[in-house]
Design brief:
Shape: elongated
Structural class: mainly alpha
Radius of gyration: 18 Å
Order of helices and strands: HHHHH
Number of strands: 0
Distance between the termini: 22 Å
Length: 107
């Protein structure tokens, strides 16, 4: 996991919800305007937090790692490394946890 990207994700404001368009407005849009609207909609959707069993499992693992750190710093580093590898594997294997789907915003 790239710490800088994670930090930027956590600290930046999420994009605003795009304006809703009617079918008539959609049909009147040019192809480029449709592409722009879809890109904005996707950016907004990717920023939303949706709790799932996978995300709850990740929270539990990370909480356990943080607790271990207070007991044994070496074990924590090993566990965090293993967890990071597992999360990256899941992202690439089946997109169960996408790179922008793990929430951390505390606003």
């Amino acid at each position: 996991m790239d710490a800088q990207l994670w930090h930027e994700y956590c600290m930046t404001q999420p994009p605003p919800e795009p304006r809703r368009v009617t079918v008539r407005e959609w049909n009147a849009m040019s192809d480029r305007d449709r592409e722009i609207h879809v890109e904005r909609l996707e950016a907004w959707l990717y920023s939303l937090f949706m709790p799932t069993a996978d995300v709850n499992g990740i929270f539990s693992k990370i909480t356990k790692i943080v607790r271990i750190k207070h007991v044994d710093a070496t074990r924590c580093e090993e566990s965090a490394s293993a967890l990071g590898t597992e999360l990256r594997r899941q992202e690439h294997d089946d997109d169960a946890v996408g790179p922008r789907q793990v929430p951390c915003r505390h606003r």
